[in-house]
């Protein structure tokens, strides 16, 4: 009885104090459907439009889970091989200049173990520039640790490479193929960088603010004039980037616009081992492969930089939490979760499922200030969103 009282008090306790975000949205779900949700704050601080669970936001690195689903669908169709040298798909040699004999595979790209590194915003590659040109810069590589070492360091750049591979083998633009083959089967009105979203989704865009200024998706109900990054003064002519040359254009590393309700559908599909509302999206084997750790931190085999510091177990674009000895617990209360977190432009997001109990949560918070250094990369606002969403589940 004392334990039950303690749990009840914990659920009733207020969230940790933190600067109030512009918006906070969360949902709890099971394998069978949504349980409950909350939405508070504004989707557009300029107009005062209130946020809802159906409003799409640039969900940041959670986007990577959808890219992995796309890759695995092509693996199931025998169009891709997770362990093949990706050079054979790209049509040019992808090699760490300090380890030229070591091939890099899609498995390495999706698990951040291929020795590719970020520098500045190099993964945001503008129109008219290619992935190959960007990777010619030695700072794009870990020259000390080669691919064979399976040394983990989180790198956004892995996903423009993967998207380039997908364009090469499908002969179709990344965002269009992803909408038809991944998002539509799950009946999710979402898109990479807006072109394939419905007009209704565009009208509900969540504006991301930092320091009182709109930094992303201040659309005013209109699609952006140019859906990709183009250099100042240059025409937004997508024909300047042939398929497979610049997979960064539509933001595979973080540019998915999706609602929290849409994230819940992703979670339900994974909980049901690849099936959603009678539609087979992935095979059970592919789901297990995606969510099973490919790498675990043992004190020597992973970078401890700001972005990697609290990732201690990682699959194919899926993080496992919590891990003993790692500051990666936003409030799981002993349950084991798998999913992904996102952090960009003042937004923090997450989708997490508890496979054993068949349940999960998804959330985002916007207008979140940069946090001072702390033991966990989960910010206070992020932990609050996690815990509020988790409290909606039956316990």
From TrEMBL:
- Has the keyword Signal been applied to this entry? yes
Q: Which SUPFAM superfamilies match?
A: beta-lactamase/transpeptidase-like
Key words of the record: Signal
- Annotated Beta-lactamase-related domain ranges read 26-374
List the transmembrane segments: none
Protein name, per record: Beta-lactamase family protein
Organism annotation:
Sphingomonas hankyongi
Signal peptide start-end: 1-17
Q: Does the keyword tRNA processing apply?
A: no
